[in-house]
Amino acid sequence: RRTPARTLAESGRTRRSEKDLMDEDHVAQLTVERDRLRRKDVERESALKALESTIKVLRREATQSAVSVETLRNKLRKAQDENVQLRLSTELRRTPAPYRSMLEATSKRTQHITS
């Protein structure tokens, strides 16, 4: 025996069609999918933040390394210059007096060029 729709509505119940049930099922599936995508977005966001902080650290380290390399290059250049000067002064002491002035002039030109 079927109950008329009006008496179902009055009692707070409704007759649900198959289409309504399919729509509710579809809404539930979409809700589950939406929640899954939100979780994925959160995971991606946290991974992105971790990568960004890693990049910052690496950039900082690279900058420090570049400064260190430049400092070392400068120290090496200075040491090489001092070595050249030491060699020249040693050569000057060994050179007989008549040729010393020519060697000094050459060393001053060389020093001017390398500076």
Automatic annotation (TrEMBL):
Species whose genome carries this gene: Rhodosorus marinus
Start and end residues of each stretch annotated as Disordered: 1-21
The protein's name: Uncharacterized protein
Annotated Basic and acidic residues bias: 12-21
Superkingdom of origin organism: Eukaryota
